[in-house]
């Protein structure tokens, strides 16, 4: 039976140096057993960013929400409202196109092995077209 999605859940986690940290989570479950987790930065986050806590957060989410780490698709999302610096500065820093309205990064773990912790996170900027595919898949279009 397919599990119901979790939408815009405020999620607290312990980041680097035991920092209280927060983000928003969207979790979409698929019939294959795969799960798409979209973690959105929030401006009020007092602690570690999603990117800097990728391994901590991914492992914790898999355990807490009973997700097979081998079937996890983990995306970090940043919008103009969630950046402490201006979004234009963020676009320039990451060499992103001027026409994007949000930035999404696929966080993947090439070393993931069944039964082992996710580690050695790698990051790939997702183009707007790629994110549209994710949104279409999660909205049933």
UniProtKB/TrEMBL annotation:
<protein>
    <recommendedName>
        <fullName>AMP-binding enzyme C-terminal domain-containing protein</fullName>
    </recommendedName>
</protein>
């Amino acid at each position: 039976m397919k599990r119901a999605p979790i939408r815009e859940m405020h999620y607290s986690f312990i980041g680097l140096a035991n920092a209280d940290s927060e983000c928003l989570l969207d979790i979409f479950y698929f019939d294959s057993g795969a799960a798409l987790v979209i973690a959105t930065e929030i401006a009020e986050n007092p602690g570690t960013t999603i990117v800097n806590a990728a391994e901590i957060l991914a492992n914790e989410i898999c355990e807490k929400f009973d997700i097979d780490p081998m079937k996890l698709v983990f995306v970090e999302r940043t919008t103009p409202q969630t950046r402490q610096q201006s979004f234009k500065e963020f676009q320039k820093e990451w060499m992103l196109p001027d026409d994007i309205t949000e930035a999404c990064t696929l966080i993947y773990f090439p070393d993931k092995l069944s039964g082992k912790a996710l580690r050695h996170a790698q990051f790939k900027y997702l183009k707007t077209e790629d994110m549209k595919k994710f949104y279409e898949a999660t909205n049933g279009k």
